[in-house]
Design a protein that fits this description.
It is a single chain. This protein is mostly helical. It is built from eight helices and four strands, in the order ββααααααααββ. The longest helix has 43 residues.
């Protein structure tokens, strides 16, 4: 492998002065040769991890997938999305729900970047095409246009367009897997926030057109059962929160001969909001 400290092969660093990018790792751009080497090394780790995963060695597979993310250039969003999704699968097998959620979310975040990049590329192509069509309209008379044969649309044969379409389909396929994994992990982890998040993930999956018939049944089943689970978790956690606030309030009010029993919370049936009324003990 090329020496990354060599002046001739020194990776370039993108400007991270934008405040919105401060929480993200600094992007390091490698030369094409270095990038190919690092990607090949990451692919080797990934292939070994796939073998381990299929053999049921999930902890060992997880370590290998992590090795792959360590060497994969951090600007290769699609490749990293695949790895993070696979890491999430390992955590699911080990019933490590929190880590599964984190890894699946990292995958989805990377895919969001891929989608934004593809959208930008498509917008540039569309603008260029519109400008090209406008020029053609100016230089071709209406009579000539009617006499000439209809131009062949070679967009489908364009390698760049075909490549972009494939990347879009690949990203959608990995998003489907990552969403299924995160939704399951959130459902298993439980709690108001996780269950509500699982419901949102399954709603997103219900609108996707690449979900298999088997997974579509899972999605439908979860969307039937989750609303009641979310409600129960919300009520339980709300009650626990009020209990802790009451305990804290009693500690503060006790020196004044008062307690939270002197204050009654009443809910407005129209707005759902609460008001507090003082009641002398």
């Amino acid at each position: 492998m090329a020496d990354p400290t060599s002046p001739s092969n020194e990776p370039t660093k993108e400007d991270s002065s934008n405040p919105e990018q401060q929480d993200e790792p600094e992007l390091v751009k490698f030369s094409p040769e270095e990038e190919a080497e690092l990607l090949a090394e990451a692919q080797t780790h990934k292939s070994e991890a796939n073998v381990l995963f299929n053999a049921g060695s999930y902890t060992e597979a997880l370590a290998k997938y992590s090795d792959a993310t360590d060497v994969c250039p951090n600007y290769l969003d699609y490749e990293l999305a695949v790895l993070h999704s696979n890491i999430s699968a390992c955590h699911l097998k080990c019933e490590e729900w929190k880590d599964a959620i984190t890894s699946a979310t990292a995958s989805i975040d990377k895919l969001d970047k891929v989608d934004r990049q593809l959208a930008e590329e498509e917008a540039i192509v569309a603008a260029a095409k519109a400008e090209e069509d406008e020029v053609e309209e100016e230089i071709v008379s209406s009579g000539a246009a009617q006499a000439a044969p209809k131009p062949v649309n070679d967009q489908d044969d364009d390698p760049i367009t075909a490549s972009r379409r494939k990347r879009k389909e690949d990203a959608k396929r990995i998003r489907y897997k990552a969403l299924m994994r995160r939704a399951r992990a959130r459902s298993e982890a439980g709690g108001w926030t996780n269950l509500a998040g699982a419901e949102e993930d399954y709603k997103t999956l219900s609108k996707m057109d690449n979900v298999t018939a088997g997974d579509r049944k899972i999605v439908a089943s979860q969307l039937r059962s989750l609303p009641s689970r979310v409600k129960v978790a919300q009520e339980r956690e709300t009650a626990e929160m009020w209990g802790k606030l009451k305990e804290l309030g009693n500690g503060i009010l006790k020196p004044f001969g008062l307690s939270t029993d002197n204050f009654k919370m009443e809910q407005d049936p129209k707005t759902g909001g609460y008001s507090m009324n003082f009641k002398q003990g």
